Structure formats: structure tokens, C-alpha cells
Amino acid sequence: MAEAINTFQIIGQEQTRKYWNTLIVSGRFGHAHILSGHSGVGKDALAFYIAAALNCRAEENKPCGSCIACRQLQNLEYSALYLIFALPRRSASQTDPFAGIKESEMDLINEELSKKIAWPYYHLQIEGANDIRISGIRKLRKDIYLSIDPGTTRVVIILRAHKMNIEAANALLKILEEPPSGTVFLLTTEYLDRLPDTIRSRCAVHHMPDLNWELIKNDLTEKKGLNQVQSEICARMSMGDLAAAHTFAEQDNTFWLDRIRATLNTLAGSDFVSVHKQVLQLKDKELENDESRQQFLSLLILFFRDVALQVKDGETTLWVPQVQQMIKLFPNCNSHAAIQAIERTKDALERKVHLQLALTALFFELRKHLKGQTL
After folding, report:
1. What is the mean pLDDT of the chain?
2. What class has domain 14-207?
């Protein structure tokens, strides 16, 4: 029997797709699911795929990718699809998440959605969209109990569900406790622990495994036309995030490598001024945004992993000379503690802590870990 069409360009994740195809055919699954996993593994793409499979008009091998329901879902235009994501706060409205948003801002939001439609791995970049507020969930509650055509499955997809504030999460909980019939909720998140226990307890949790960097490398070679060396560099720099890999493929990789080298020189020094300059550069809104800062910190993690592995000439790595120099200068370097410190900072920045303080604290903590000192 032929397989369902990979309508939403899911890379890898064959076992996950087979699992969901079997689950959907059986009809034995609950009304609420959390798709968790690291950034760029395909959670949103899988959510769209599931929505299409539940509503596909084909007799078998769903989603077919060609029926009217599949085509509408590919364009996020299906009437029984409810897509919720973080929006900028422009109004105190408790029932309309779009209240107060200017026409020009709405045009930018639609442009971002168009990019998501074209490629489900794309990360929406909407300025000021820091959280999912109660107005979005209240509007959902108003709309979701309306009647729909027989045989149709309502699908509610909440992108980056950990961005729900507490009021929004509590409002969603009430819907999950008494869901309308024929409705499936799909919540995607990179941070499962940030979702309230009450939400998690009412959902089946499905973890999506990381993508192998060689799989990402092959995707870049095929879709971006990069040579093998360029594809490998971008794939390793992405640390399993397919969206980040595509971003790297569109940039000058030497820029990122130079940034890391400059940071390593800062860490190897002992003065405050160099740290201050690095922090100011990362803080500068004209030079950086939330995503680029996260990419930068991910690269630092990759570097310290290579230090821990003590890579040598001839091995696959981006910065063999820098790694070897760091090992020579700091033989007692605690790479594992350094990685943990960077991961904590990445998480803190997602929570919108004080940017300058968090980055300054990180750089000084990394200096201590380089010397193997206990904090």
C-alpha cells in the first residue's frame, strides 16, 4: 500500500509519522496532544500534517495532498483550523487578540504567515509578540463551539504553547476539561516544563527526536545548492535545528565564526572592558534580535562540546585551531559546566530576563569554568 504524501515537507521523523498514521487510522486517540522537542525538529510541520490527515477526503493514504481539505490546510485556510500564536500587545481587549494592531503591522504578520505556509519549519518573527494572551483563548472559546460540517474534525494548533501566560493557560484548561466533540488540540513546544502541570496532565505528550546533522546536511545540499563543505558547516552550526541551518545557509558563515573567535578572545582575557563590549554588541537591537542571540549561544555550546571531545586535526569540526588553543591555555576547562551555564542563559533569555545582566553574568561565569574554578 502506498504511503501518505509528505504534504508538509517533514524531514526525517519517519517513525513519528508512521506512529501518527497508525493512530489516526485506528481512531483511538484523545482530544489533546503536546508535540514537544527541540527547535527545528518539525513539530509545527507535524501538527499541520496531522490536521490534514484528520480531514483528508481520500479513502486511504491520508493526507493525500490534493483534495480540497488538504489544499486548504496547506494554505492555513481550512475553516475548521484554529491557529493560535503569540501576538504583540496593542490593546487591553480581553476578547480580540488583534485589537489595536495597525494595518501595517497586520501586513507584516500576514507576510510571516506566508513564509510559514511556504515552509512549516519557518520560525514566525513578529516584533513584540512575547506571549499568547487570554484574548486569543477567549476568542477560540467563542468560535469553537459553533457547528461544523459532518465528518469534519476541528483542529486547534497552538504554536509555541509555552508562550501562553497564566491567564491564557487557565482559560485553555477550561476548554480542555469540556472540549467540543470532534475537536483535536495540538500544542507545540520546545519547553515542555513551562506548560502548567494542569495542561500537561490533560494532554498526551509526544516527544520528537532531534534531527541527525547529516540529514540536515543532505537537505541543505538538495534545497539550498550548497557544496558538501558548506552544507556540513551549516548543519553542525545549527545543532539539529533545520530552520537555523537554512538561515545559516543564506548568510556568510565566516561572520558567525568570526563572532565566536572574538568571544573566545574575550573569555581568554581578564579585563571587564572586553566583556562589556561583547555584551553591548549582543544587546544592540540594530545588530541583533532574539533569534540571532539564541543562534550565537548555540554556537558557543557547540564550541565547548568540541573542547570536551578534544577534537584534533583532520576531524570534523569548524574551529580546530581555536579548540586546540583553548585546551592548551585552559587544560582544566570544565566544558560541561560551561555548556550548562549557556543553556541556562538561553532559557533565561526566552523568559525575557534583563538582557545585559544575564549576558554579563554568563561571560564571567564562563571565564571561571575555563579555569576549572568552582562557583
Report:
1. 87
2. alpha beta
